[in-house]
């Protein structure tokens, strides 16, 4: 029997999973996705090289998270017959104010995390449903929760609070920040490959369907664009990003919108999709001739430049800008637009390197390094689970 770590990322209608061999580090073995859970589920499985493999299991039973986790259990048995799942690492969006690192998912911790369901109603219930299902399916395995909020828990107070009466801060109404697993990975990559930059002032732009930016000082989060919820900061695929709260009051009072309607509007109908009137997908917008598609990209890149200036101010300058996420890692246009006119921050993009999707895309003489680093949230979860296993064994 060889020991493995399973990583799970449970969403509203999907379950992403990864299988990692422990002996090598952990090293990825397979990655999968079950989508349309509760509808007509589909299952995709790839090996570590990214090659699709026939899963050989019928996904029809994945009618909820428990059914989807049961399917993962059968897949593990089929594809890793001599592999034992020693630990399951879970992505959990909200760890609240106290979890500054991964946590063993005991009954108490799970119950505590229920308190943050109202803070992240679109993500937390599904994450916890996945965690409960995995505890039932893999009862012998160590269960570890990794939080998107943990990485930001050392924010200075001015970046942790809103200017509301203090009692709201005490009740948990704070700027938590998200995408922490991605920032953790990038900070680790910088420490490994560019230690001087890691010790300096870095802004990471995680630009995907969800998007945020984080200011790192010596590898630690000092400020980030997402706040109490994953709505704040940059516009995203379907989320609005920064919004005057007066707009919400107006929509409730004058247009009679309910909280459910507002949640739909702000989470699902806004951002690139709302502005373009056509798509949340950057590739589709880049390919479109429609003026509204171009305007949506303009708004997106303008907000990134604004936040970049703000984060550089919070850091007292800038040594490196790192792009990651589906858009950050692939869109030459977005990276070029973000860096346009940013010479005042020491940024000089090298056009050919940017076109080639190189790791360093700034010019040799650029005072600020601009980099593209593919992020990997799953390996952060797998490493955390492996480390906790190691501590348990010690
Ligand atoms: P993520 O949520 O990190 O998977 O990122 C999804 C986003 O990345 C979508 O908006 C995609 O359109 C965008 N994306 C992926 N590949 C490319 C590409 N080659 N050019 C532009 N955008 C891309």
UniProtKB/TrEMBL annotation:
Keywords: ATP-binding, Cytoplasm, Kinase, Magnesium, Metal-binding, Nucleotide-binding, Transferase
Binding-site list for Mg(2+): 9, 377
Class of this enzyme: transferase
Record's catalysed reaction(s): acetate + ATP = acetyl phosphate + ADP
Gene3D superfamilies: 3.30.420.40
Cofactor binding description: Mg(2+). Can also accept Mn(2+).
Similarity field: Belongs to the acetokinase family.
Subunit structure: Homodimer.
Protein name according to UniProt: Acetate kinase
UniProt organism field: Paralimibaculum aggregatum
Gene: ackA
């Amino acid at each position: 029997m060889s020991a493995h770590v399973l990583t799970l990322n449970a969403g509203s209608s999907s379950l992403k999973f990864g299988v990692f061999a422990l002996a090598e580090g952990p090293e990825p073995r397979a990655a999968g996705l079950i989508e349309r859970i509760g509808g007509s589920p589909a299952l995709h499985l790839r090996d570590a090289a990214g090659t699709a493999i026939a899963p050989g299991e019928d996904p029809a039973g994945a009618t909820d998270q428990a059914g989807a986790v049961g399917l993962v259990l059968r897949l593990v048995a089929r594809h890793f017959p001599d592999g034992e799942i020693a630990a399951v690492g879970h992505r959990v969006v909200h760890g609240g104010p106290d979890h500054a690192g991964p946590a063993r998912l005991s009954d108490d911790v799970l119950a505590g995390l229920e308190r943050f369901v109202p803070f992240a109603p679109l993500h937390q219930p599904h994450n916890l449903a996945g965690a409960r299902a995995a505890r039932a399916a893999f009862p012998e395995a160590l269960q570890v929760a990794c939080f998107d909020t943990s990485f930001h828990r050392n924010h200075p107070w001015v970046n942790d609070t809103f200017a509301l009466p203090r009692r709201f801060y005490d009740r948990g109404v704070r700027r938590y920040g998200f995408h922490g697993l991605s920032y953790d990975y990038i900070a680790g990559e910088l420490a490994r490959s560019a230690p001087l930059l890691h010790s300096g002032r870095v802004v990471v732009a995680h630009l995907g369907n969800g998007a945020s930016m984080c200011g790192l000082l010596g590898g630690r989060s000092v400020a980030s664009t997402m706040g109490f919820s994953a709505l704040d900061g940059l516009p995203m695929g379907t989320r609005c990003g920064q919004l005057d709260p007066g707009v919400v009051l107006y929509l409730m009072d004058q247009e009679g919108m309910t909280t459910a309607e507002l949640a739909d509007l702000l989470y699902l109908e806004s951002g690139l999709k709302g502005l373009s009137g056509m798509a949340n997908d950057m590739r589709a917008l880049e390919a479109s001739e429609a003026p509204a598609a171009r305007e949506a990209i303009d708004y997106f890149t303008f907000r990134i430049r604004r936040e970049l200036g703000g984060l550089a101010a919070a850091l007292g300058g800038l040594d490196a800008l790192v792009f990651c996420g589906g858009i950050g890692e692939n869109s030459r246009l977005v990276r070029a637009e973000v860096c346009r006119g940013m010479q005042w921050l020491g940024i000089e993009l090298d056009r050919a390197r940017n076109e080639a999707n190189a790791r360093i895309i700034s010019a040799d003489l650029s005072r600020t390094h601009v980099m593209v680093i593919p992020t990997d949230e799953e390996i952060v979860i797998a490493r955390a689970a492996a480390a906790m296993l190691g501590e348990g064994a010690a």
